[in-house]
Specification:
The complex is a heterodimer of chains A (about 220) and B (about 350).
Chain A: H1 5-17, H2 21-33, H3 38-58, H4 64-81, E1 95-100, H5 108-119, E2 123-126, H6 133-143, E3 147-151, H7 159-170, E4 178-182, H8 188-194, E5 198-199, H9 203-218
Parallel strand pairs in A: 1-2, 1-3, 3-4, 4-5
Helix pairs in contact in A: 1-2, 1-3, 1-4, 2-4, 3-4, 5-9, 6-7
Chain B: H1 14-22, E1 32-33, H2 40-44, H3 48-51, H4 55-69, E2 73-76, H5 82-86, E3 90-92, E4 100-103, H6 126-140, E5 145-151, H7 153-160, H8 163-172, H9 174-197, E6 201-205, H10 216-237, E7 244-247, H11 255-259, E8 265-268, H12 273-280, E9 285-290, H13 292-297, H14 300-313, E10 320-324, H15 334-347
Parallel strand pairs in B: 1-10, 2-5, 5-6, 6-7, 7-8, 8-9, 9-10
Antiparallel strand pairs in B: 3-4
Classes of the chains: A alpha/beta (about 220), B alpha/beta (about 350).
């Protein structure tokens, strides 16, 4: 017997934010078997659950371990549902390039921001860690990313962020790409000093700042 | 700086000043611990990559830094992963930066059977640290406290096994994590013995236990009990030495859980130190917390103002040591470290 769509969506959402990957997998398979809309299930089930996890993270109920396990559950569900998306589901998404600047291999903060950006509906191009500075500019040009996100945990590498902004200026494309920065030693004051467009001090804040910056760019 | 003339002269040397804290007396002024680590290489004028692989150079660099700045604590250190490195994690070395983790030793859970407490006479760079410690104690140990710094059990575990997998295992494979932490704790206890035998102060750093990464619940379950065993060991065998803990990043959510670990001195980073004093100042002395990136980027006048604000927040300044929130960045201009220490001389008085 097929369950109501709403009941299954609730399982998808609960499974993500309560860290129950098995429940997510079972519910996602149920969506497929019942031929319910996969796009709806991703958005109103999985991503709704991830956003709820993000709220709990914001309120310091959840921390990094919880957020990572929630995201594992979300991605497990997406994996099952993705092949059932219709062509008409493809929408234009905001494109973002993200990475940890050259000289630094600490990437857990960057990975959290990427997860939350995936959940918030951005098209995220993740360059990984220890990324040569020119690669940020090249990739942003190549994919037409409105936003470049730079992360570092180290004081020795934070100057690389200023270099990326300089590179954009030199190429005369500074206005085409907003730059958001974050990481342990980074502050709003440092962001102002190097002329970055935005700064966020945690993964949930990063989504708010990114949305603001892209809304401004569109206006 | 325009205020040089108004800097009061010190009437105590560094070790006298620090001993006052341990004896419950007021020193002439608050002590100052700029956390000078890899920056010591700059003072000696050697590449960081030489400093952190040669014990003699590391020791001489810290003696030179102490002679140059008059910091109230020497800290022998290059990375938080030194114990893990000695236990098999591969590091990548750079000429002008601290080493970083290249390949964690544990690839899968079953690899834990190969994990052992290291041999302190030969594994990794443990002999480098210990030789540097001996040199500092021999050369300036009568003037200043020499400490040797290493990663606590949780931080060591996260350097032995990828931190993203370890954090998931806090929820999914608790027993395995406890097994790993047990070995890391035994290694830490052995390190404390080696440091104490050289008449130096062991300092434990547990950055991976920062509130940015683990919740108070997980701190209570996975971090505090193991840290407490290290603190207990220092208390039992240290001949009156305090147990000192440094955790960088945001720690406020975890303060109550951190108290369980029973350390005497906390060095804190991204917190309101005045708020910390109100919350836990009755239990622990506090070191902090000029923002490290500011040391690198700001002017001496700005450092002076920032340090003054911290001193003012600390009220009666009892149990307070002025310092940097985390490592003094390698390329910090020396005049900013001078400004920080001078701020302790100016704003760290108990008689005004």
């Amino acid at each position: 017997m097929t369950r109501e769509r709403g009941d299954i969506l609730k399982d998808l959402m609960d499974g993500v934010f309560l860290m129950n990957e098995e429940l997510v997998i079972k519910a996602a398979n149920e969506i497929v078997a019942a031929k319910y809309d996969a796009y709806d299930a991703i958005n109103n089930g999985l991503i709704a659950g991830m956003n709820k996890a993000g709220e709990l993270f914001d309120q310091e109920e959840y921390f990094v371990p919880e957020l990572l396990i929630c995201s594992d559950a979300m991605y497990a569900g997406i994996e099952i549902l993705r092949p059932h998306l219709k062509v008409s589901d493809a929408r234009e998404k905001h494109k973002v390039v993200i990475g940890v600047v050259e000289g630094d291999t600490h990437d857990i903060g960057k990975n959290l921001v990427k997860i939350m950006m995936d959940a918030a509906g951005f098209e995220v191009h993740d360059l990984g860690r220890n990324v040569p500075l020119a690669s940020f500019v090249e990739k942003a040009k190549e994919v037409g990313a409105g936003l470049i996100c730079l992360s570092t945990l180290m004081t020795t590498t934070m100057d690389g962020m200023a270099t990326v902004i300089e590179m954009l200026k030199e190429e005369g494309i500074r206005d085409a790409h907003k730059v958001m920065i974050g990481g342990g030693p980074i502050s709003q004051a440092f962001a102002n000093k190097i002329g970055a467009d935005g700064y966020a001090d945690n993964a949930a804040g990063a989504i708010r700042v990114a949305n603001n910056l892209l809304a401004k760019a569109a206006a | 700086m325009n205020t040089t003339a108004t800097i009061p002269a010190d009437t105590q040397n560094s070790i006298e000043r620090v001993l006052c804290y341990l004896q419950g007396k007021k020193p002439q002024r608050v002590a100052c611990f700029p956390l000078i680590l890899n920056h010591a290489a700059r003072v000696l004028g050697v590449p960081v990559g030489v400093y952190n692989r040669d014990g003699k150079t590391m020791g001489k660099a810290h003696v030179a830094a102490f002679r140059r700045y008059g910091n109230d604590l020497i800290l022998i250190f290059s990375t938080t992963s030194t114990l893990a490195e000695a236990m098999g994690t591969k590091m990548k070395f750079f000429d002008e930066d601290a080493p970083q983790i290249d390949e964690p030793f544990l690839k899968q859970h079953s690899d834990i059977s190969k994990l052992k407490v290291p041999d302190f006479s030969k594994d990794g760079r443990l002999p480098v640290y210990l030789e540097a410690t001996e040199i500092c104690v021999a050369e300036v140990g009568s003037e200043v406290v020499v400490s040797t710094v290493f990663g606590g059990p949780f931080t060591t575990a996260a350097a032995l096994y990828p931190v993203e997998l370890l954090t998931r295992d806090l929820i999914k494979n608790k027993a395995w994590v406890h097994e790993l932490l047990e070995i890391c704790t035994q290694a830490g206890i052995k390190f404390i013995d080696e440091i104490l035998a050289r008449k130096a102060l062991p300092i434990i750093v547990e950055p991976i236990g920062s509130g940015s990464l683990v919740s108070p619940r997980h701190f209570h379950e996975f971090v505090a009990p193991y840290l407490k065993r290290l603190a207990d060991h220092v208390h039992k065998t240290g001949g009156g030495m305090p147990a000192v803990l440094h955790i960088c990043g945001k720690t406020k959510p975890n303060w109550m859980a951190m108290l369980e670990a029973d350390f005497d001195i906390w060095s804190l980073d991204d917190v309101d130190l005045g708020e910390a004093k109100k919350a836990v100042g009755h239990r622990v002395a506090l070191v902090g917390n000029v923002i490290p990136a500011n040391l690198l980027k700001n002017t001496p006048e700005e450092i002076d103002a920032e340090a003054r604000e911290i001193c003012e927040k600390m009220g009666d300044k009892v149990g307070f040591i002025l310092g940097s929130g985390c490592e003094v960045p390698i390329n910090t201009p020396p005049e900013n470290i001078d400004a920080l220490i001078n701020a302790a001389r100016k704003y760290g008085r108990y008689d005004n």
